[in-house]
């Protein structure tokens, strides 16, 4: 029987989100309905509400979630009702050219549920990142569900569904940070702090956190930053070079998504170093760089989608590290809130008061 539940919807560009009654169909072939237990508020949800991703309003927001599978459709074998899962927004297809080359984290054909969740009047909703998890029950493709150890509470586990995985993966997978590296992270929100934490996990010896907000820099230290720079007070490129023997960092991770911070990342890395762009820009942004510098500085300029993660490989592994006390997911949770508090959580995010507000259902 289809479900009628409450969910958080962005109806129009820039307008406050509202709690709406939503119809969730029974899972069809290859689909699953999941009882959402917790879902973090990510900056990307705000990007959606502001029309920065696309114009396919109304959006069902929320995409950083964990919960329990309620029902599965025909042909689903990877999960079963009762499984404890983290939702992922890159269910790999196994068949595209990236998958066939053995690089499924680049999958060019990731899939979502085929049926649509709708408002009461039948208007189809666009789920954020193909998930939509600020809702009591959500419909996803079964491949978007990754089973993990249920000892990890949903408030912590759900974070791996987006921002924290994006940050850790930007450091470990995309940036390939390893023992002894110097790493700089520009922008220390949930994603940037996860990159700081990931760099520490990978054995980086110098981890430089850059932000415009001293409170954020204080938190970055708790996640493992060895040095902090407030780029309102100092030129971050000069400061990073000074801290790295005049050279720049081996890996610089941009976790803001703006041209000026990308440029800082470009010049704050050592020769032959790596820049990882994990912050999401908006469509009108451009960046201009001397081509001779792009050539002459060598190294790699990379983008990181979802931390180049492979959910089936990375989620259970990171949950194990969490349960061993080596990955502090709880520290990212600034507050737990209800479904009706998402708009206020956006305001707190905007004011820099929180790393993650997590909706608990
Ligand atoms: N690539 C991915 O797969 C992926 C996944 C999730 C989120 N994101 C993106 O990552 C970015 C960060 O997300 P978040 O949830 O951490 O957001 P956030 O708002 O919590 O953090 C952004 C941080 O950047 C800082 N900042 C702003 N301007 C700055 C500047 N000029 N210099 C230095 N710091 C500055 C802010 O003070 C804040 O601490 C967003 O663009 C988000 O959309 C990307
Ligand atoms: Zn694929
Ligand atoms: Zn996100």
TrEMBL record:
Q: Does the keyword NAD apply?
A: yes
Q: Which UniProt keywords apply?
A: Metal-binding, NAD, Oxidoreductase, Zinc
SMART domains in the record: PKS_ER
Keyword flag Ubl conjugation: no
Cofactor(s) needed by this chain: Zn(2+)
| Domain Enoyl reductase (ER): residue ranges | 17-361
What domain of life does the native source organism fall in? Bacteria
Fetch the PROSITE patterns from UniProt: ADH_ZINC
Q: Name one Pfam family in it.
A: ADH_N
CDD domains in UniProt: Zn_ADH_class_III (cd08279)
Q: Which NCBIfam families match?
A: mycoS_dep_FDH (TIGR03451)
Q: Which family does it belong to?
A: Belongs to the zinc-containing alcohol dehydrogenase family.
Task: Show the PANTHER family listed in the entry.
Answer: ALCOHOL DEHYDROGENASE, ALCOHOL DEHYDROGENASE CLASS-3
Q: Kindly provide the name given to this protein in its UniProt entry.
A: Oxidoreductase
Species: Streptosporangium pseudovulgare
What are the leading ranks of the lineage? Bacteria, Bacillati, Actinomycetota, Actinomycetes, Streptosporangiales
């Amino acid at each position: 029987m289809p479900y009628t539940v409450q969910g958080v919807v962005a109806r129009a560009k820039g307008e406050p989100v509202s709690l709406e009654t939503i119809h969730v169909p029974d899972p069809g072939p290859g689909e699953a309905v999941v009882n959402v237990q917790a879902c973090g508020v990510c900056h990307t949800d705000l990007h959606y509400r502001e029309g920065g991703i696309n114009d396919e309003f109304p959006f069902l927001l929320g995409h950083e979630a964990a919960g329990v599978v309620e029902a599965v459709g025909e042909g689903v074998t990877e999960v079963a009702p009762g499984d404890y899962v983290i939702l992922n927004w890159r269910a790999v297809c196994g068949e595209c050219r990236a998958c066939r080359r053995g690089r499924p984290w680049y999958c060019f054909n990731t899939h979502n549920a085929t049926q649509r969740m709708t408002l009461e009047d039948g208007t189809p909703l666009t789920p954020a990142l193909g998930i939509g998890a600020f809702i009591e029950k959500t419909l996803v493709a079964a491949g978007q569900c990754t089973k993990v150890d249920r000892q990890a509470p949903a408030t912590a586990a759900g974070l791996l569904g987006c921002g924290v995985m994006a940050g850790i993966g930007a450091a470990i997978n995309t940036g390939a940070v390893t023992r002894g590296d110097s790493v700089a992270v520009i922008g220390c929100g949930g994603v940037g702090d996860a990159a700081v934490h990931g760099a520490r996990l990978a054995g980086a010896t110098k981890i430089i956190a850059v932000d415009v907000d001293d409170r954020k820099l204080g938190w970055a230290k708790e996640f493992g930053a060895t040095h902090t720079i407030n780029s309102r007070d100092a030129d971050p490129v000069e400061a990073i070079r000074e801290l790295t023997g005049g050279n720049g960092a081996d890996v610089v991770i941009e976790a803001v998504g703006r041209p000026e911070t990308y440029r800082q990342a470009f010049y704050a890395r050592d020769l032959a170093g790596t820049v990882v762009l994990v912050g999401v820009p908006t469509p009108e942004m451009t960046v201009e760089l001397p081509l001779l510098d792009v050539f002459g500085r060598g190294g790699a300029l990379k983008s990181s989608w979802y931390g180049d993660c492979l959910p089936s490989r990375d989620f259970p592994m990171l949950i194990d590290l969490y349960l061993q006390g080596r990955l502090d997911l709880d520290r990212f949770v600034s507050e737990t809130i209800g479904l009706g508090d998402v708009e206020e959580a956006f305001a707190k995010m905007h004011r820099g008061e929180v790393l993650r507000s997590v909706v608990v259902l």
